[in-house]
Every structure is written in structure tokens, then in C-alpha cells.
Write a structure and sequence with these properties.
8 helices, about 170 residues, single chain, about 70% helix
């Protein structure tokens, strides 16, 4: 399901490498609600979130602010986009190498033009790190991301055809 794929990437990346981490129903519901609230708040096109799940990070201000909103609701960043390392450390499960996880978090610290871009760049770094190291890359997630990207490509081609037909 797209909702959980997006959110799982964000949360798993934040706690840096939680391989096989499972969530309670309560946690899933909170994640789902935070995602929906941030989509409404930022008015982001959910297709851009799907594309980011597939590794296609579009340079879009609404997507950047969605990322900040979600991280902020999770308690990982301040309004100004500053990482709350104590909160992140506290939320790293006992089964994860905390030292390694904190190193990834610290290595991905970046600063953008504003708080939204800063958090977006940090998230992008985490995502790229997990993909480069094949962490949290289950066959289901790969297949889902590929289908979403293919669907997006088909939609864009249909729009171009429609535009050409009108001209």
C-alpha cells in the first residue's frame, strides 16, 4: 500500500537502518494520520511522494514542505528544520546498532535555503544511503515503486498526447 510505503521509508530511514522493524497498529494509524494531515496541509501532489519512494526526488517546494511536516509530526525536527538527535536516539529500537544509526543521521545533516528544503535534503540523503546499502529494500517495495514510476510515465505520455492533439 502506497501510504505505508512512503511513511515506512521516512520512519525507517530516520531511525537509520531498522531492518525488519515492525509497527503496532497504533503506530501505523499515527503514521497514516500524520501523512494525510501533511498532504492536506502542504497540498502536495501525492504522486510526487510516490515518485520519491521510487528514488525520483522531484525539486518541488510542496514535496519539500511535506517532508518537513511529516518529520516534525514524528518529533524528529523542529519548526526550523533542526534535527532533534535526542528524540531520534530515543526512538532507535534496541535491536539496531545505535552508534551506526546516529552516525548516518549526523552524516546526513545538511542545510537548505529554508526549513522545508533542509529536511528534504536530509531525507533524500537517508533514502539514498539506505538504497545504496540495500537496506529496507524488499522485493515488494521495489515492485511497488517500479509500478508507480511506470504509471507516472504513462500518465505523462497521455497528457503530452492530449496536449498535442489540441494543438
Amino acid at each position: 500500500m502506497k501510504v505505508f510505503a512512503t511513511v515506512a521509508v521516512v520512519v525507517v530511514v530516520l531511525v537509520a537502518c531498522c531492518i525488519g522493524q515492525t509497527y503496532t497498529e497504533e503506530e501505523r494509524e499515527r503514521i497514516r494520520k500524520n501523512r494525510e494531515d501533511c498532504i492536506i496541509e502542504t497540498k502536495v501532489d501525492s504522486n510526487l511522494i510516490t515518485r520519491a519512494d521510487a528514488g525520483d526526488f522531484v525539486d518541488d517546494d510542496k514535496l519539500k514542505c511535506f517532508t518537513k511536516c511529516f518529520y516534525q509530526k514524528a518529533g524528529f525536527v523542529t519548526e526550523n528544520g533542526e534535527l532533534l538527535l535526542d528524540v531520534i536516539k530515543a526512538k532507535i529500537p534496541a535491536s539496531v546498532d545505535k552508534e551506526r544509526a546516529v552516525k548516518v543521521v549526523e552524516d546526513c545533516k545538511q542545510t537548505g535555503k529554508d526549513a522545508c528544503e533542509t529536511v528534504y535534503l536530509i531525507h533524500k540523503c537517508y533514502f539514498e544511503y539506505t538504497q545504496r546499502n540495500n537496506l529496507n529494500k524488499t522485493p515488494e517495495k521495489v515492485e511497488e515503486a517500479e509500478k508507480a514510476a511506470q504509471s507516472e510515465t504513462q500518465t505523462e505520455a497521455q497528457k503530452e498526447t492530449a496536449t498535442e492533439s489540441k494543438a
